[in-house]
Amino acid sequence: MSSRSSSSISSKSSSSSCSSSSIVVVVAIIVVVVVVVVVVVVVVVVVVVVVVVVVVVVVVVVVVVVVVEEVVVVVVFVVVVVVVVVVVVVVVVVVVVVVVEVVVVVVVVIVVVVVVVVVVVVVVVVKVEVEVVVWECGSGVVVAVAVAAAAAAAVAVAAAAAAAVAAAVALVVVVVVV
User: Recorded GO terms, molecular function (predicted)?
Assistant: First the structure.
């Protein structure tokens, strides 16, 4: 029974049923996944940049308001009002910074989760497709598929690293500005 099944497999592998469409499917899946990962990373980087710009603008506006109010401090009775306003502004800035940092951290966590999910999906899908290709075309094409998969994995890792670096830079900029 086992000799029959093995001969069936070998005849299937050596038959002419191998089509380039199977290999194209594997390569197409890898390319699509890599493009999705890169797009996700670009979107995250844009979000981080926008958040940083918003924080910088808020801080600059707060500084201008404080300076203007300090000029008005010449009038003695305004001192109390200025102090109250400055305290309120500082509290608002602190709350904004904390919220922004939480948002950045949440974005980074989402990116990590998305990248992990994408990698898992890639592994599962590519494994299935590679098995199909091996079944139809024999094991010779596995080398080419493995090279393509390795290239896709390298791009995904680089994209994840870029997202992590962008998030870290954003956090540093926020802390330094504040």
Answer: transmembrane transporter activity
Q: Identify whether the C-beta of residue 146 lies closer than 8 Å to the C-beta of residue 27.
A: no
Q: Angle between the 142-177 and 20-72 helix axes, to the nearest 10 degrees?
A: 0
pLDDT band at 68 (very low <50, low <70, confident <90, very high): low
Q: From CA 134, how far away is CA 126, in angstroms rounded?
A: 12
- Which residue in the block uniquely carries the two structure tokens 């094409």? 141
State the pTM of this model. 0.40
Q: What is the DSSP string of the chain?
A: -HHHHHHHHHHHHHSTT--HHHHHHHHHHHHHHHHHHHHHHHHHHHHHHHHHHHHHHHHHHHHHHHHHHHHHTTSTTHHHHHHHHHHHHHHHHHHHHHHHHHHHHHHHHHHHHHHHHHHHHHHHHHHHHHHHHHHHH-GGGHHHHHHHHHHHHHHHHHHHHHHHHHHHHHHHHHHHH-
| Contacts of residue 32, Cβ cutoff 8 Å, sequence gap at least 6 | none
Rounded to whole angstroms, the Cα distance separating 148 from 66 reads 57
CA of residue 71 relative to chain centroid, distance? 46
Nearest by Cα to 105 from 168, 157, 178, 53: 168
Give the residue carrying structure tokens 């080398």. Answer: 143
